[in-house]
Every structure is written in C-alpha cells, then in structure tokens.
Amino acid sequence: MALLAKAVRQRQDYLINELLRYGYFEASNGRQLYELSLTELEQVHIQVKSKFGKQLGKGE
Questions:
Q1: Predicted local confidence at residue 20, as pLDDT
Q2: For the whole model, what pTM was predicted?
Q3: Rounded distance, CA 55 to CA 4, Å?
Q4: 1 — pLDDT class (breaks 50, 70, 90)
Q5: I need a labelling partner for 44 at 20 to 30 A (CA). Which of 17, 24, 29, 60 fits?
Q6: Residue 52 burial class via C-beta count within 10 angstroms: exposed 0-12, middle 13-18, buried 19 and up
Q7: pLDDT (tens digit, 9 = 90+) per residue, 6-56?
Q8: CA-CA-CA-CA torsion sign (18, 21, 26, 28)
Q9: Are the CB atoms for 46 and 39 separated by under 8 Å?
Q10: How far apart are CA 53 and CA 32, in angstroms?
Q11: Separation between Cα atoms, residue 47 and residue 32, nearest integer Å
C-alpha cells in the first residue's frame, strides 16, 4: 500500500508543478493546489492544458 501512496504523491507533485508552470495557483473554488485530490488535479490539469492549446491555436 505504501508503494501506491508514493506513486499517488509523485503524480500529485508532478501535476502541481505543471499547473504552476502554466500560472495556475489555486482551484476555481479558492482551494490551494496541494489541497486537491489526485482526481481533482487531473481534471484541472486537463482543463488548463486544453485552454492553453486553444489559445495557441488562435495565435494568441
């Protein structure tokens, strides 16, 4: 079980670092990134990268 917890924490750390790189510091509900579950972080990450991709597509 400790191995799973370590893998989850590593993924959360990766997602948080990625979101920080994109200038995203907290969830829309005001919670800090470190307070979000892995599932919530994955959802936010997808939304942020999708938004960034759309902006690139428009040439902004």
A1: 96
A2: 0.86
A3: 36
A4: confident
A5: 60
A6: middle
A7: 999 999 999 999 999 999 998 888 999 999 999 999 999 999 999 888 888
A8: negative
A9: no
A10: 24
A11: 16
CA-CA distances (angstroms) from residue 54 to 26, 37, 51?
A: 21, 26, 5
Torsion of CA 7, 24, 37, 4, to 10 degrees: 0
Token pair of 59 as six digits: 């040439």
First to last CA, the chain: 45
Q: Contact, 36 vs 43, CB < 8 A?
A: no
pLDDT bin (cut points 50, 70, 90) of residue 60 is: low
Write the CA distances from 25 to 10, 18, 38, 41, integer angstroms.
Answer: 18, 10, 16, 12
